[in-house]
Each structure stands twice: as C-alpha cells, then as structure tokens.
Amino acid sequence: MRIGIEAQRLFRLQKHGMERVALELIKNLQVLDKENEYFIFVKPDVDNKVISSTDNFHIVEVEGGAYPIWEQFKLPKLAKAYNCDVLHCTSNTAPLALKIPLVTTLHDIIFKERSVLEQLTSSASWYQKIGNLYRRLIVNSIVKKSERLITVSNFERQNISKIYKLDNNKIQTVYNGVNEYFKAVIDNKTKAKVKQKYNLPEHFLLHLGNTDPRKNTARVLKAFYMYIYEFTEDLKLVLVGLNQAKLSTILKSIDLEKELSDKIILTGYVADKDLPVLFGLSELFLFPSLREGFGIPIIEAMACGTPVITSNTSSMPEVAGDAACLVNPNSTENIYEAIVKVRSDKNYKEQLTEKGFTRYTKFTWENTAKKVLGIYQRFNHNNI
User: Most CB contacts within 10 A, which of 22, 169, 189, 226?
Assistant: First the structure.
C-alpha cells in the first residue's frame, strides 16, 4: 500500500497535543511496518530533525499558506501526485476535495460544545479561536466523507457517535500512549540542569496552564491560594504554558494578583524532553480540566511517579482509573480538599504513586501504531 499521513505542523518548534500524537504514531509505525510505503506530508519549519526518512517512509515538505489553504488545496494534490491508496489526516480536519479513501483522527469535538459567541469572547488566543471556527465549518462534512474515524477515548467515541448519529463500526477508539523518556528515575545532573533552566523552586505543585478556559487555571490558582493561606507553607505553583500578561489577567479576574504574585513560577513553553523532570520534581500534578478528549499529561505524570489530581468528568476517569485523585473541576473547594488530602496523607500519596506506575503501562505508542496500522490494512485491495 501507499499510505499518506498529514502531519502539517510536525516540524513546528512548540508542539501541542495533536502534533505530539502524530509524531509518536509515525515513529512507531516506522519500527512496526517495513512493507507499506508511507508519505508524510509536512510544512517546512525549524524543528525538522524530529523525524527522518527511512527506506519506506518519505518525509515530503510542502510550502503553503495558512493551515486551511495548505490542507484544502495542497494536500489533495499531494495525495494524488504520490498515488496514495489512503490518506490519514491526524488533526480533526481534512481536505474536502480528496478522491481517495480518508481516515481522520477526530481527537475531540469540544469545539462543537460551545457557541460561536462564547468562543469569540473567551480568553483563548485568536489562533485557538480561528482554529475552532474552522473546525466548526468543516468537520460535519469531514465526518461524512471519512471512511474511518479514529478518536482517543471511549468517552469521545460515544460522544461523537451521538452528535453525528454514526454507526459505531465507522469510528474506533485508539488510545494515546506515553513516551519512554517519561520515567521516575532521572540522573541528578539532568535534574539540576532543568531546574536551573526553568528557575524551579525546592517545593512546588505543577499545573499545565493554558489560555483555553477549559484548562481551569483560575480555579487551580484559587485552590492553591486557599491551601497556602491555610497552611502557610513555603510552597510555589509552577505554571507551564502561560506568559506573564495572561497570568496577570487571570489573577486580576479572581482578585488574587497581590496575594499570589510571588508564589507562582512561569516556565513558558517546556520542551518535551524536559517535561519528565518537571513532573518528577513536583510534589503533585494538578490537572482538573473541565473537558478532555484524552488527557495525555495524566499518564505522563504517573510514569514519572508523580501523584495526580484530575477531574471526574469526560475522558479523565477512563484514562486515570483508580490511580488519581478525582475531583469535581467546577468546585474550587473540592480541588483544595484534594490538595490537602494528597499532601497530608502519606499513605494515600504513596498509593496513588504505586497505582500510577501500573496504570500508565496500559497506554503505549506501540499499541497505538498497531491499531492504526490495522485500520490502514482495511484499504489494502490485496486483502479484499
């Protein structure tokens, strides 16, 4: 077979969830499949060493304009030019004019659950807002056009099937995984280097913040303030993914700018290879998101031996199992109580850590690649 994989943003320096998933899938397919021919369609960018061509994997760099233009006009021509038997689009959208079978990974349909007005007036970046609007315009047609849909949790599969009234045979759950460099034992030299690089304090809790309101950063900040106010500890909150301007906006909105200004460490963007050190050095990982399609950081933190507080909503209980402290993400009080419980009950904290070590091993990128390869093989005419 000749298999095309859309990975337009794979080479951008600051990768987010969907690019990381596409990268891990491709790397594991390279190890797993030596027979089929692959064409990985990417847009040129600075981080072009993350993956290399092999005998049957060809990296095809294609210049283009904005994401929709590249996807709608360039990508179908590429699939035709390289005589692909099937095209896999990895990030929720796909070209409408494609003439060959289409497989689409629909990570989630969060963009459909909020009104257009709500998205336009939210604190999300304009890049996020435009992306959400593009998805709202196109995904209905892509769902109908796709021969197969992949999503990342059973929760999301049921959600998508219900919204789009799909036959369950058309959509398949393929879980995400954990990279092998997420591990509990990291050498002291690496720890010291990363600690200095991001100005990490001795004692801290970790939260992956975001301008997207669903990451629930405002309630995390309020719960953290309640904790340090009650226990008067020398404890910091390390925030990944927020700049000072965005943080100030959030702190002003919850009237805690003065109280928390010296209690928060901002790391900015953290490279994937540095994330395991941040997880490992933190005393607790706070991930009480309002909504996730999967929630990769949950299992990454577990792999690093870090106890996790996450939400009892959407996909998070499915991913975390009984290896995390589950909270109502809409309750600041509940998040605060969870912090107290994990930090004050040593036995409970150790139980979470041990259960986390077992839980994360259920999610591997090798299994992801095997399942996706099985989906590709359905389009192999030699098997029909």
Answer: 22
d(CA 86, CA 215): 35
pTM: 0.92
Tell me if residue 246 falls in helix, strand or coil. Answer: helix
What domains can you pick out in the chain, each with its CATH number?
Answer: 2-177+365-383 (3.40.50.2000), 188-361 (3.40.50.2000)
| Tens-digit pLDDT profile for residues 348-378 | 999 999 999 999 999 999 999 999 999 999 9
User: Does residue 318 have a pLDDT over 70?
Assistant: yes
pLDDT at 120 over 50: no
* Residue labelled with tokens 């999503």: 151
pLDDT score at 127:
58
Determine the Cα–Cα distance for residues 165 and 377; give it in Å rounded to an integer: 25
Counting every residue written for the chain, the total comes to 384
CB atoms within 10 A of CB 47: 15
Distance CA 311, CA 291 (A): 8
Do the bridges between strand 37-42 and strand 148-151 make them parallel or antiparallel, or are there none, so unpaired? unpaired
Q: Cα(104)–Cα(22) distance, rounded to whole angstroms?
A: 12
pLDDT of residue 384: 45
CA-based nearest residue to 269, from 9, 12, 4: 12
Q: Is 236 helix (H, G, I), strand (E, B) or coil?
A: strand
